[in-house]
Design goal:
The protein contains 15 helices and four strands. By secondary structure, it is mainly alpha-helical. The strands form two sheets. It has a two-stranded antiparallel ribbon. It has a two-stranded antiparallel sheet with strand order 3-4. Helix 1 packs parallel to helix 8. The radius of gyration is 23 Å and the shape is globular. The two termini are about 45 Å apart. The mean pLDDT is about 85.
C-alpha cells in the first residue's frame, strides 16, 4: 500500500504539468481551432522567466573588506547583491530566496504579451488553413524560440532552487498511520500540485461563471451565431490565447525547482501533452485535465523497478500505448465531442 501511495504522489507533479499544458492546448484548439505546436515553447519561456528574474535578483557588485583576508593573505573581496544593498539584507535576501514564486507576478504580463504577439502576428493568418500547415508553422516557431533561448542561456540546465522553507520532504507515512519515513515526498512537489489545482480551478471558474467565459463557450460551440449577435468573438478568442499562454508560462515557472530549465524542455513536454489532449478528447477541457493526471500517474507506476525489470523501457512508451488503444477504440478521446477526430 505504501508503494502504491508513493507512486500516486510521484505521478501528481508530472500529471499536473501535463494537465496545465494540455489545458492551454485545448483552450486554443477549442476556441481558435488551431493545433499549436509552439505551446510547449510557452512552457519553456515561463521557466526562463523564473531563471531570468533569479539572475537579475542575484546581480552583485564587489567590495573589498580590508579587515578580512583570503587564503593568499590579500584583502577579501565581498560579493553583495544589488537588491540587498538597495532594500537591506533581510528584504533583499528574501527576494532572492523567493524568486520563483515572485516570478509568477512577472510571468503573467510577460506571457500575456507573448501570447498576444504570437496570435496577432502569426497564428491569425492560419485560422482557415489546414491543420498540417498550422502544425508546420507553429513547430517551426517552437524551434526558433528554443534556439533563441539556447543562444542566450546556453545548452546546460540552469538550477533554480525553491525557497528554503519548501526544500524538505513531508512524511506522508506518519500522517497516514504507516511507519515514519515510509512515504516521504518533497514539499515543493506538493506545492506544485496545489498550485496546478488552483490554476485549473480558476480557469474553469472563469469560463463557467463570468459573462466573458460564457460568451467564449458559446463561441466554441457556434462561432458564427455568436458573431451574428454583434459580439466581437475574435477579440475574445485572442484574449483566450493570451490566457492559455499565461497558464503554460505559470506551469513552467513553478516547475523550475523540480526540473532545472533547459532549452528543449518545452519539446519534451509538448509531445506528451498532445498525447494527453488526444486521449482526453480534442476540445474537451475536463478531458485534458483528467487524462493529464491519469497518464502522469500511469507513467509513474510504469517507472517502478518491479515493472521495468519485467518490461524494460515500458515507462517511456506507456503513454503512447494508451493513446493507441484509446484512438483505436474511441477516436474522439475519453471525453471528446462526437464527430471530433472521427471523420
Amino acid at each position: 500500500m505504501d508503494a502504491i501511495i508513493l507512486q500516486i504522489l510521484n505521478g501528481l507533479d508530472k500529471g499536473s504539468a501535463y494537465a496545465l499544458i494540455a489545458l492551454g492546448l485545448t483552450l486554443i484548439f477549442g476556441t481558435l481551432g488551431v493545433v499549436n505546436f509552439a505551446h510547449g515553447a510557452l512552457f519553456m519561456l515561463g521557466a526562463f522567466v523564473a531563471v531570468t528574474l533569479n539572475k537579475i535578483l542575484t546581480l552583485s557588485f564587489t567590495t573589498v573588506d580590508e579587515t578580512r583576508t583570503d587564503f593568499l593573505g590579500n584583502p577579501a573581496k565581498i560579493e553583495t547583491p544589488y537588491v540587498e544593498a538597495w532594500f537591506g539584507p533581510e528584504v533583499g535576501g528574501w527576494m532572492i530566496e523567493w524568486s520563483v514564486p515572485l516570478a509568477i507576478l512577472v510571468a503573467i504580463p510577460v506571457m500575456a504579451l507573448i501570447g498576444l504577439v504570437m496570435e496577432r502576428g502569426l497564428i491569425k493568418h492560419f485560422y482557415k488553413r489546414p491543420h498540417a500547415d498550422q502544425i508546420l508553422v507553429t513547430f517551426g516557431l517552437a524551434i526558433v524560440l528554443q534556439e533563441i533561448v539556447k543562444f542566450y542561456y546556453g545548452a546546460n540546465p540552469i538550477p533554480t532552487p525553491a525557497p528554503e522553507a519548501f526544500k524538505g520532504s513531508f512524511d506522508f507515512g506518519a500522517l497516514l498511520g504507516f511507519d515514519p519515513m515510509t512515504i516521504i515526498y518533497p514539499y515543493w512537489r506538493l506545492v506544485y500540485f496545489l498550485f496546478a489545482m488552483v490554476v485549473i480551478g480558476a480557469v474553469f471558474a472563469f469560463l463557467q461563471f463570468t459573462t466573458f467565459g460564457m460568451v467564449v463557450r458559446a463561441g466554441m460551440a457556434d462561432r458564427e451565431t455568436v458573431g451574428l449577435l454583434g459580439i466581437n468573438i475574435d477579440r475574445r478568442f485572442t484574449i483566450m490565447f493570451a490566457i492559455a499562454a499565461i497558464v503554460a508560462g505559470l506551469a513552467g515557472v513553478m516547475y523550475t525547482p523540480i526540473l532545472s530549465p533547459n532549452y528543449h524542455m518545452g519539446m519534451d513536454f509538448l509531445v506528451l501533452s498532445f498525447v494527453v489532449v488526444v486521449v482526453g478528447g480534442m476540445g474537451s477541457l475536463p478531458g485534458a485535465v483528467l487524462s493529464g493526471f491519469l497518464l502522469g500517474i500511469l507513467q509513474s507506476f510504469a517507472s517502478m523497478s518491479q515493472v521495468t525489470s519485467v518490461l524494460p523501457g515500458i515507462n517511456q512508451i506507456i503513454i503512447y500505448l494508451v493513446a493507441i488503444i484509446v484512438l483505436l477504440t474511441r477516436p474522439r478521446g475519453l471525453m471528446g465531442r462526437k464527430g471530433v477526430m472521427e471523420e
